[in-house]
Every structure is written in C-alpha cells, then in structure tokens.
Amino acid sequence: MRKDALAGVATAAVVIPQSMAYATIAGLPVEVGLYTALVPLLVYALLGTSRALSVSTTSTLAALTGAAVATVPPDQAMAATTTLALLAGGLLLAAGVLRLGFLADFISHPVLAGFKAGTGLLIAAGQLGKVLGVEQTGDSFFAKTRSALSHLGDISWPTAALAAATVAGLFALKRTKIPGALVAVGAGIVVGAAGLLDVALTGTVPGGLPTPAAPDLGLIGPLLPAAAGIALMSFVESIAAGRAIAHSDEPEPNADRELIALGAANFAGGVFRSLPAGGGLSQTAVNDTAETKRAGALTALVTLATLLFLTSVFADLPQATLGALVLVSAVGLIQLEPFRQIGEIHRRGVALGLLTMLGVLTLGVLQGVLVGVLASMLSLVHALNHPQVTRLETGEIKVVGPLYFANVQRVKRRVLELDPEPVLDMSAVHGIDVTAALVLEELAPRMQGLNPQPRELLRRVQSRANAAANSRSTSK
User: Which residues have CB under 8 Å from 450's CB, separation 6+?
Assistant: First the structure.
C-alpha cells in the first residue's frame, strides 16, 4: 500500500496539471481536464488489466477532440465533448464485446510515428498565440503558424518571457525526479497572484464534483467519424503504453479486456463532462512504481481533493504557463529516432510516416490518420500484388508470397518469361485461391514443395479436370 500511495500521489502531480493544459488544446475550460483525471481514471482502476496504466487524457486525444469540437458552434462545445466521449466509449465497449482487439494492428509503426510528429507540430503551432500573447486563428498547422507570425508586432514580452522561463524549467527538470509540471504550475500561480507580470490569467475555476450531462442527440451523426478515430487512437495509445511499461514477469494487457475497460472509462467520463480518455506514456511511466491498480484510484482521490478544496488556487495561473506545458508536451511527440529506425529497415516506411505527418499538418489530425492508414493498406495491396519470383542457383524458379486472383496472372507471365518449361519451388507459397488454382493448373505437374492448402486445392482442380475429360470420353 505504501508503494501504491507514493505512486498515486506522484502520478497526480503529473496528471493534474497536464490534464488542465490538455483541456486547453481542445478549447475547453481547465476544469474539464480535472474531471478527466477523476472519473475515467477511477473506472479504469476498477476494470483495467494493466497494473500501471494511467488513464486520463493525452495530447493526441485532446487534439482530436479539439478538431471535432471546432466543427460545432462555440456554445455547443461542452455538449460536443460529452457526446464524443460517450460515442467513443460505446464504440470501444462494442469492439470489446466483439473481441476486436486486433484493430490496434491497423496503425502501423510508420503511421504512428508520422501521426505523433504531425500532431506534435500542430499542437505546438496552436500554442504560439498563448506563449507570445498574440491573437491567433486558423485550423491547419500552416494557417496557425502564419497567423501567429503575422502578429509578432503585437507580442506581449512579459507573456513571452514567462513562457520561455517555464519551458526552460520544464526541460531542466526532465533530468530529475521532480514533477516539472507541478513545479511550473506552482511557480506560475505565485507569479500571477503576486502580479509580478502583466499576463493573462486562467480566472475562476469551478470547484466541486462534476455534474452529469446528457449527449446532444443531434450531434451523434456529425461526430461519429471523429468518435471512431478517437476510440481507435485511445486504444492504440493505451495498449502501446501498457505493453511498454509491463515488466518481464507480468502479463501484457489483454487487448479485448482493455477495450471494455477503456470503453467504460470513456462512457462514464462522458456522463460526467470529461474529455475522451486514454492511457498516456508519461504519466504511466511515473506510475510504474505501483504494485497494484490501487495507485490509479489514489491518483483519482488526489484529483477529487483538488476539485473540492484547491480550484480557487488556479484562478491566478497564467495562460502562458499552460501554453508552455502544452508546448513541451507537443515537442516530446516530435521524434526523429523512430523515422531513423524505420529508415534503416525499409525506406518506404519513412515515406509512409512523412505522408501521414503531412496529412495531419494540412488536413487535420483525424484526416491525417486516415491518410496514413489508407496509404498503408495500398502499400500492402501493392506488395501482395507483386510477390517475389526469382531463379535459384539450382535452376528452379521460386515464388514467395500468397497467390490469388489479383496477382496470379502477373506471376505466371513472369515465371514463363524466366523459363518456358519451369520447375517451380512453391515452398514459400502458403495459400492460393480458386482463381490461382485454375490459372496454375497446367503448371501443377512442375511444382515442388507444395504446402498443404495449395496442394489440396490443386488436387481438386486436377480431379475436376480428369472427371470432365472422362465424361467427354464416355459421351464419345
């Protein structure tokens, strides 16, 4: 219990200020971030399968939420957030019941790397107005950046100085075990309360427990695609963080049960005005010292105490401090190392990651992910349609990969180009379909090393041909 208590309090020191900052990414009041660090976290602690996973919200989920909320009028922002969380929760629950945990595999490593880098740049661009104290408009990365730069003549130097000092402090504290986010918030509140700088403050933060809210039924249709993207990303980020932090002597999180736990966390969070929730790697890493899931419940209890007794303190928190917190978090998403590792294995993967990143920067977060997934699928189809056909030193021709209706004609032409009377090594062909079996029928006697499925299918084709020949002979 002692280890769980220490882990829970330490994680709260990270989660509470981060959640407040992430709420601003979505364009929502900071108390919504506190609600997200309470309800979803508590529900996951009861139902989740990962010992250390800390489920509140993440910068990427906040960005996805912000992109969706921006499509509705400002007075519907909170209703849209509630609807998104409930929809995402419902989709995750349904996926868990249907045992669709394998869907996480549809986000490839290159797409995830490009998505994170693009989202990091997009979030960072969106904070330029706050950290410089200037007006900012626009939706895309380029529009946000152009807007901020066009107002550089109006820069608020006290705001910029505070933001720069906060960023420098956060990077310096990263090398220590001190919770940099908590220190930054504390220092910012001192500066704001003392009136040392002429900067914009957060203002009144409502305290107390979150009250239940109903979804806006009229927004279900328009927000459903965004909710599906949020649900998928919540699951992908959570399962990745849970697997990364799992110790060698403990099982990895169960994907299908995680869908249920995350779905319940999002659904309950939506009822109580939370952002869509998922597991973040930064707070999960802090929570790794926990022995059991009780640590997550203790983090939620610290958040509850904050809501009940400490919200008045945040009124003097400068907006520049929150902007700096988000900026540092966004920069952490922009990593070149994954691209370098992918490039060492396959250059096409780097192109796929860069395409996803460009999609996020130009089209938006959800659209960028869809571009990456679509490009991944097209790349897979291209690879399947071009199986390797090579001549071995022994003179045999080897085919590598599955053969089906879309590639078998190309493979047959290539084989006959190499040798009009080939001897085929089929040991690397583990599956064929009916079309492939019919097309390759005349080459079947020249095949060696057939695997069970192709051998059985070709046998049936040959039996059919023999039966047809016998029938013709009998009729004559």
Answer: 426, 427, 429, 458
Look-up of token digits 């009124």: 315
In whole angstroms, give the CA distance from residue 453 to residue 430: 7
CATH architecture of 388-475: 2-Layer Sandwich (3.30)
DSSP category for residue 176: S
Q: How far apart (Å, rounded) are the C-alpha atoms in residues 213 and 40?
A: 15
Confidence bin at 263 (pLDDT 50/70/90): very high
The contacts of residue 396 (CB under 8 Å, 6+ apart) are 422, 423, 424, 425, 448
| pLDDT, tens digit, 9 for 90 and up, residues 314-352 | 899 998 998 898 888 888 888 888 899 988 888 888 999
Q: Which residue has the tokens 């505070």?
A: 162
Q: How far apart are CA 380 and CA 407, in angstroms?
A: 13
Confidence of residue 434 (pLDDT cuts 50, 70, 90): very high
Retrieve residue 412's tokens: 């047959």
Judge whether residue 249 has pLDDT over 70: yes
What is the C-alpha to C-alpha distance for residues 451 and 131, in angstroms, rounded to an integer?
63
Instruction: Tell me the three state secondary structure of residue 212.
Output: coil
Positive/negative CA dihedral, 392, 396, 402, 404: positive
Residue with the two structure tokens 């969106």: 126
* DSSP secondary structure code for residue 214 in this structure: -
Q: Which residues contact 268 (CB under 8 A, 6 or more apart)?
A: 39, 40, 43, 89
Using N-to-C axis directions, what is the helix angle for 77-97 and 255-271, rounded to 10°? 150
Token match 């380029």: residue? 142
Cα–Cα nearest to 432, from 456, 405, 403, 406: 403
Mean pLDDT of 246-252: 75
Residue type, 353: G
DSSP code string of 17-70: HHHHHHHHHTT--HHHHHHHTTHHHHHHHHH-S-SS--EE--HHHHHHHHHHHT
Distance CA 104, CA 263 (A): 15
- Residue 425 is predicted with a pLDDT of 94
CA distances from 466 to 446, 448, 463, 472 (A): 17, 21, 5, 10
236 with 279: CB under 8 angstroms?
Answer: no
Compute the half-sphere exposure of residue 9: CA atoms within 13 Å on the CB side of its CA.
6
Q: How far apart are CA 278 and CA 109, in angstroms?
A: 19
What strands, in cross-sheet order, belong to the sheet with 397-400?
388-391, 397-400, 424-428, 447-448
